[in-house]
Amino acid sequence: MKWVAAPVALASVLVLSACTQEQKQGFLPGESGVTNHWDGIAGLWVTSWIVLLLVGAITWGLIIWATIAYRRRKGQTGVPAQIRYNMPIETFFTAVPVMLVLGFFAFTAQEQAKIEARYDAPETRIEVVGKRWAWDFNYLDEGVHFSGVQVQTDENGSALPETMPVLYLPVGKTTEIKLESRDVIHSFWVVEYLYKKDMIPGKSNYMSFTPEKTGTYMGKCAELCGEYHSMMLFELRVVEQDEYDAYIADLKKDPDNHGFLGVDYNPNQNLPGAGVPADEVSQEG
């Protein structure tokens, strides 16, 4: 095996050294270090497809070898032996998949535990409320909110920037996003962050991360939620602290932005915990 491993390792190094940065990160969106989770997610993804590509190459090689080695030779008649045991290969085909499954599970669980961990005292807390087909952003520490509307499009079907809901976050701050839905299941997805999380009516979900680079990132709903699901878009703008403070100050200038927009506008009045319907109350009375 050492005579095989060395050429394979050398070939892998040569191939990877010729790859572009996009190829090296497995064609994933975003860039290294955009959040504290990005490198771990990208590393798991790239390592997984490299390992699976090697497994595929070995499997294809064995199939081709068996096709050639056990073909019917010239002058032979009848059907070749259909059953032939090879204990080393049988052991290989059993042990390797088991090790791969256990390995993928362990590394995935390890990375998922990091992603799902909540900060004890996040520096920025935002509540995002999904609604058909837009977003509301409650800045919980500042006592103000932003109410979004459905994104409108021009004659070419492109989103109009002035109708795009925008979520502001300060760079380098531990951030907790509380996710709520006002109607049906949505999914909060910042594409370049490689992370999405469902928003389920009647249930609060959380996602925690630290944005480590300033910039504007595309966000969207990743759960089919109705007729205008494709237009349920938003932008995430990660800015310096002074710009974030200036944005919050602008929101506070309008009294209509004070307070929070919760799920009390939920049209689903029969959710668990919503209380007894009015007609049943009158009948019981």
What does this structure look like?
The chain contains 6 helices and 10 strands; from the N terminus they run ααααββββββββββαα. By secondary structure, it is of the alpha+beta class. The chain folds into 2 domains: 115 residues, Helix Hairpins; 140 residues, Cupredoxins -  blue copper proteins (Immunoglobulin-like, Sandwich), CATH 2.60.40.420. The longest helix has 32 residues.
The name of the CATH superfamily of the largest domain reads Cupredoxins -  blue copper proteins
Give me the side-by-side strand order of the main sheet: 3-2-1-5-8
Would you report the number of β strands?
Answer: 10
Low-confidence stretches: 280-285
Mean pLDDT: 85
- The string of secondary-structure elements, in order, is HHHHEEEEEEEEEEHH
Number of domains: 2
What's the CATH C level of the largest domain?
A: Mainly Beta
* Class from helix and strand fractions: alpha+beta
CATH structural fold name of the largest domain:
Immunoglobulin-like
CATH architecture of the largest domain: Sandwich
Tell me the Rg in angstroms. 27 Å
Overall 3D geometry? elongated
Cα-to-Cα separation, first versus last residue: 82 Å
SS field, number of helical segments: 6
* Strand residue content: 15-25%
Q: What percent of the residues sit in helical stretches (DSSP H or I)?
A: 25-40%
Biggest sheet architecture: 5 strands, mixed
